[in-house]
TrEMBL record:
<feature type="transmembrane region" description="Helical">
    <location>
        <begin position="390"/>
        <end position="410"/>
    </location>
</feature>
<feature type="transmembrane region" description="Helical">
    <location>
        <begin position="416"/>
        <end position="438"/>
    </location>
</feature>
<dbReference type="InterPro" id="IPR002528">
    <property type="entry name" value="MATE_fam"/>
</dbReference>
<dbReference type="InterPro" id="IPR048279">
    <property type="entry name" value="MdtK-like"/>
</dbReference>
<dbReference type="InterPro" id="IPR050222">
    <property type="entry name" value="MATE_MdtK"/>
</dbReference>
<feature type="transmembrane region" description="Helical">
    <location>
        <begin position="89"/>
        <end position="108"/>
    </location>
</feature>
<keyword id="KW-0406">Ion transport</keyword>
<keyword id="KW-0050">Antiport</keyword>
<feature type="transmembrane region" description="Helical">
    <location>
        <begin position="191"/>
        <end position="214"/>
    </location>
</feature>
<feature type="transmembrane region" description="Helical">
    <location>
        <begin position="267"/>
        <end position="292"/>
    </location>
</feature>
<protein>
    <recommendedName>
        <fullName>Multidrug-efflux transporter</fullName>
    </recommendedName>
</protein>
<keyword id="KW-0812">Transmembrane</keyword>
<keyword id="KW-1133">Transmembrane helix</keyword>
<feature type="transmembrane region" description="Helical">
    <location>
        <begin position="52"/>
        <end position="77"/>
    </location>
</feature>
<keyword id="KW-0472">Membrane</keyword>
<keyword id="KW-0813">Transport</keyword>
<feature type="transmembrane region" description="Helical">
    <location>
        <begin position="352"/>
        <end position="378"/>
    </location>
</feature>
Length: 446
């Protein structure tokens, strides 16, 4: 396949995945915007609570992401049985993780207080998590089934199911946060209930589609029967992905905790800036998922040359997106931040000043953030996850988090320093992971 052919194939596969990730992001964006209208303290609490939730969620998502290259490779080999087995055991692993995580979500307040958060903000975040935490169970099942469908190149339906979730979440938030349409005004509790409703609707939709369109895989027939050999394979691939996710998301969650030490207004500004940076990251993540599927398919066929060409193309596409984002964040920072703040909010001037500085730092890490997630996508396609896990842990925990603390608090750079540590951690990760894929992993493919 030519480079142009690869670009077209990646676009056909990747654009719906990008759209799906952007739609998923819109769910969090809706929460941020509506709670920003409700009050700065509510926004700060959900920023903290959501960061806490997603640390656990992205760990559990490791098993769903493990399913993607396994199903892609099995599809290339036309092995229908392995497709069913990998998907089913991915759901098993995700459900076990969700049940283990539930106590940390239901009783989160002591943990948040131990992390040095303000008592009022920690109490509100814990209130949100006591309800929203139950959404972990359907959310992780949805992640596995979306990965299964995406690996079979049914990315359009992944997109439309996520769009449905956006609409449900927006409507439920509008009703339950503010008390519209005859609903009670529940504030942050309403946002939590809306989150659970959204996850349940998504699960019903994705299960219905899988049963209707792909009945040959019989995913849920005798679902209770264990498959120890495939379960071990999913866990062996999924645990390093889960810990890699933990390493990365903990870098960002640690930054939220550190911003919380600076007060509710800096934390709210951080929440807005991280939402904007996350929106652009969704494009890289969609391309990374496409890279995993394409590399997994080439891996199943043992086609190294095809994989190398596709890898170069998808990295170039990510690079072009990074350059466009850098220009946007440097020239349109204030108008973008203003979208999240009420015009008469007394904290508006301070949030704009802090948020503009944070977006300038976000522009700096676009290149390295895109590089690390593209490398991870390619490495997962060839089912190389253990060494990348170590590389990510070193980059984020040994380099990124300590650098954020030193630059933010020891050197006194405050929010800018915290985000400078993010840039440094992502730079190390991008460099090490790219070297791993091109220097070793791809050469191991026959």
């Amino acid at each position: 396949m030519t480079y142009g052919g690869h670009a077209r194939a990646i676009a056909v596969l990747g654009l719906p995945l990008i759209g799906g990730h952007l739609a998923q992001f819109a769910i969090g964006l809706t929460d941020t915007v509506m709670l920003g209208w409700y009050g700065v303290e509510a926004l700060a609490a959900v920023t903290l609570g959501s960061s806490y939730f997603f640390v656990l969620f992205l760990m559990g998502a490791g098993f769903g992401w493990a399913v993607m290259p396994m199903v892609a490779a099995a599809a290339a080999e036309r092995d229908q049985t392995s497709i069913r087995r990998a998907t089913r055991m991915g759901i098993w692993a995700s459900l076990i993780f969700a049940m283990l995580a539930m106590p940390l979500l239901i009783w989160s307040q002591p943990i948040l207080l131990a992390l040095g958060q303000e008592a009022g903000i920690a109490a509100m975040a814990a209130e949100y998590l006591r309800i929203a935490g139950w959404g972990m169970i359907p959310a992780l099942m949805v992640m596995v089934l979306k990965s299964y469908l995406a690996a079979l190149e049914r990315t359009q339906v992944v997109f439309w199911i996520t769009v449905l979730a956006v609409l449900v979440n927006a409507g439920a938030n509008y009703a339950l946060i503010f008390g519209n349409w005859g609903a009670p005004e529940l504030g942050i509790t309403g946002a939590a209930i809306a989150s659970i409703c959204t996850q349940i609707v998504s699960l019903v939709a994705v299960v219905a589609y899988a049963l209707w369109v792909l009945p040959q895989h019989t995913l849920f027939r005798r679902f209770w029967r264990p498959d120890s050999e495939m379960f071990r394979r999913v866990v062996r691939l999924g645990v390093p992905i889960a810990l890699t996710n933990l390493a990365e998301v903990s870098l960002f969650s640690a930054s939220a905790v550190m911003m919380g030490w600076l007060g509710a207004v800096p934390l709210a500004a951080h929440g807005i800036a991280i939402q904007l940076a996350s929106a652009t990251f969704m494009v890289h993540l969609g391309l990374s998922n496409a890279a995993t599927i394409r590399a997994g398919n080439a891996y199943g066929r043992r086609d190294r040359e095809h994989m190398a060409r596709g890898g170069k193309v998808v990295i170039a596409m990510s690079l072009m997106m990074s350059l466009a984002t850098i220009a946007l964040f440097l020239t349109w920072a204030e108008p973008l931040i203003s979208l999240f703040i009420e015009p008469d909010d007394p904290n508006r001037p301070e949030i704009l000043v802090i948020g503009t500085g944070l977006l300038a730092m976000a522009a700096l890490f676009q290149l390295v953030d895109g590089a690390q997630v593209m490398a991870l996508g390619l490495l997962r396609g060839v089912q190389d996850t253990t060494v990348p896990m170590v590389m990510a842990a070193v980059s984020y925990w040994v380099v990124g988090i300590p650098a954020s603390y030193v630059m933010g608090f020891v050197w006194g750079w405050e929010g800018i320093g915290v985000w400078a540590g993010l840039v440094l951690g992502l730079f190390f990760a991008g460099t090490l992971l790219m070297a791993r894929f091109w220097g070793r992993s791809i050469k191991a493919v026959p």
